[in-house]
Design goal:
Layout (H helix, E strand, L loop, with lengths): L2 E3 L9 E7 L2 E9 L4 H4 E5 L7 E5 L10 H12 L10 E5 L5 H15 L4 E5 L3 E2 L6 E4 L7 E4 L16 E9 L3 H10 L8 E9 L14 E15 L15 E2 L18 H6 L9 E5 L5 H12 L4 E5 L14 E4 L9 E4 L8 E6 L19 E2 L5
Helix pairs in contact: 2-3, 2-6
């Protein structure tokens, strides 16, 4: 087993900080490279008995509204750390729900710049789609532990799982490495020709790879920032609120935006953008729902390129507390019908913007409070495939 990193291993940090949260104290040490800690993330408290802190990304467009150009810039920086000559074919996996968009952005950038045509993007999911999952694995510290990973659809690409030589795992952060290790433990035995695993995360809090020793195969890590953390419960463990369970959803008409593998998504964005051209002077707020994040980002990116002032974010199951990076919380009914509360965070920062809600679950699935009077109609991407 080989553990290495695309940046120098961190032994003595250049910077340190203590973050005081309602649930305890987070002590950080880190070394900044091309991206600073302040550019990449802020902090908040979780409502989660397993972990009392939340690293709130400033570049994902999930908890915080984010410009599409910033989202693309950070994912492109991460993609640039991956070798262009990875043994092929290459399977990219993004982690639900937070890193679904990041993973697909990394994959699309790497594919375009490397000129490769032997890669596929697949993301884990918490939705049942009418077929048996390839594997199930757990995210131990999460509010929703269960992940499903489906085999690529037969028409997704010309290769088989048995052909895969490189595996690229993408998430927003790594703190213990347990989730990646759990995924690899179940998946690697199904990949007999695998030669290497690449991990891509925005922030790596494992001191450059030490926690990856549990990986069952040769692994290299890449990140925009490396550091270490210590968490100290100081105000009692925060119990999970009622209803925050890891229930799985069931999609009646499951569109394939990555759950069954895709070499790349294509939409008629010119047609969609034309709907909003008469509002070119109006600031826009695009909201993806749950796992429907990357198509929302693509629409926001296209609108930004046409001169619109655009912010993108997505709703989430992640239960956070007010304070720190979380200035407002709107609880929503889950449009995937799991009875698990969903949340839109920091909507107070976008209240003057026209809202465009994007989803994949049908016209009657959305919480009515998401669509405000005077906003644009919701975009059903599930009907566009």
């Amino acid at each position: 087993m080989r553990i290495s990193g695309s940046e120098r291993t961190l032994h003595i940090s250049d910077q340190a900080s203590e973050i005081i949260l309602p649930t305890g104290t987070l002590k950080l040490q880190w070394r900044e490279e091309s991206w600073s800690l302040d550019e990449l993330c802020a902090f908040a408290a979780r409502t989660n008995r397993r972990r009392g802190f939340l690293l709130v990304s400033k570049v994902l467009g999930r908890h915080l509204p984010t410009r599409p150009s910033v989202m693309r810039s950070s994912s492109a920086a991460l993609a640039s750390l991956l070798p262009a000559d990875l043994p092929g074919p290459v399977l990219f996996i993004g982690m639900a729900e937070t890193a679904i968009c990041l993973g697909q952005s990394v994959h699309s950038t790497w594919t375009r710049k490397s000129g490769r045509c032997d890669s596929l993007y697949l993301h884990s999911t918490r939705q049942m789609i009418g077929k048996v999952p390839l594997i199930r694995f757990s995210e131990p510290h999460s509010h929703a532990e269960s992940h499903l990973l489906y085999a690529p659809a037969p028409n997704a690409w010309k290769y088989r799982l048995e052909d895969i030589a490189s595996l690229v795992l993408v998430d927003d952060e790594i703190t213990t490495g347990k989730t990646f290790a759990n995924l690899a433990e179940h998946l690697v035995p199904l990949l007999p020709r695998l030669k290497q695993i690449e991990i891509c995360v925005l922030t790596d809090w494992t001191d450059g790879g030490g926690a990856l020793e549990a990986m069952p195969f040769s692994t290299t890590s890449h990140s925009l920032l490396k550091g270490t953390f210590e968490w100290h419960w100081e105000r009692g463990e925060a119990a999970d609120p009622a209803g925050n369970r890891g229930n799985l959803g069931r999609l009646q008409r499951p569109p394939n935006f990555g759950r069954e593998g895709t070499p790349g998504l294509e939409f008629d964005l010119d047609h969609l953008c034309a709907v909003y051209e008469s509002h070119l002077g109006s600031p826009l707020h695009l909201i993806g729902t749950g796992e429907l994040h990357y198509p929302t980002f693509l629409l926001g990116e296209a609108l930004e390129a046409r001169g619109h002032d655009v912010l993108v974010q997505a709703t989430t199951r992640s239960p956070a507390r007010l304070g720190g990076a979380i200035s407002a919380i709107q609880q929503l009914r889950d449009n995937y019908e799991t009875e698990v509360p969903n949340y839109l965070y920091n909507a107070d920062q976008t209240k003057e913007r026209l809202r465009i809600v994007c989803h994949e679950t049908g016209p009657n699935s959305l919480d009515p409070s998401l669509i405000r009077k005077g906003d644009f109609p919701a975009v059903d991407f599930g009907a566009l495939l």
